[in-house]
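ARCHIVE RECORD
Type: protein–small molecule complex
Small molecule: adenosine-5'-triphosphate
Source of inputs: curated submission
Record status: active
Notes field left blank by submitter.
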Amino acid sequence: MTDPQTQLVKLEGAGVRKGAEWLVRGVDLSVSPGEIITLIGPNGSGKSTTAKMALGILTPSEGRAVRVPGLKVGYVPQKLTIDWTLPLSVHRFLRLTNHLSVAECTKALEQTGAGRLLNAEMRNLSGGELQRVMLARAIARNPDLLVLDEPVQGVDYAGEIAIYDLISEIRSTMGCGILMISHDLHVVMAAADQVVCLNGHVCCRGTPSDVSKDANYQALFGARAGAALAVYEHHHDHVHLPDGQVRHADGTLCSACPGEHHDHVHDEPHKQTDLSNAG
Ligand SMILES: Nc1ncnc2c1ncn2[C@@H]1O[C@H](COP(=O)(O)OP(=O)(O)OP(=O)(O)O)[C@@H](O)[C@H]1O
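STRUCTURE (tokenized, with ligand):
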């Protein structure tokens, strides 16, 4: 547990009930500045419900959710309700819910490696571009806390790594706390400081490495999930920068060798562990 003085948000024994059903129960977690907490778990295990309690969108039916006064939150929801048949440029989208200047929009897009998309049409964006625009919208107002509900939806494996690297960079440069949800255990766990594994309640928690070895976690997802993490940790000695370049462990940059960085992906695609069907 982090120093309670610095916690941006804290859930204490928090749960939500709808009618006779508990959606999730007894969740304890906290997020401090500069910390990445990742929620994992099978479909319907209560991850989004937990994130919504942290955000204040849902009020706990038991326990409590405490946020520091004046907390600024950036949120990337799992689902976006947009009529994709209507024309909507990226900069208009960014300004729909925020009073942002064009300069602020451009800055946020540049921070997520999407500066060239300012005038693009939302409906024409690729999956990876859409997620970068969503992240730009979430960070545009310098939030203290970023809540990301499946930030790599619709993104291919190499793109996923780039987005998780980007999220780590946002944490370092902006110093915000991050509460993230993902099914994609292999990469996300390696990028997180703490992982909380849900299954209607907290099934297990700890560092990514601790969780991957936890008997409860392995019972839920199988030992294969832990093996995938080991593969990722072993190979991941480089960082994908938002501009498409790759920074190696020795600090050198390269822009023309993308194929060399994912031999573990191309050789062993079956090691990519998607938990969306688990449980
Ligand atoms: N408003 C609601 N009313 C009733 N049940 C709900 C409501 N919202 C969520 N649920 C149920 O609560 C459970 C937890 O849902 P939640 O969306 O938190 O899970 P999740 O872990 O985020 O799932 P997924 O991985 O599929 O996104 C599910 O069984 C879901 O059907």
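CURATOR ANNOTATION: Confidence is low (pLDDT under 50) at residues 230-236, 256-279.
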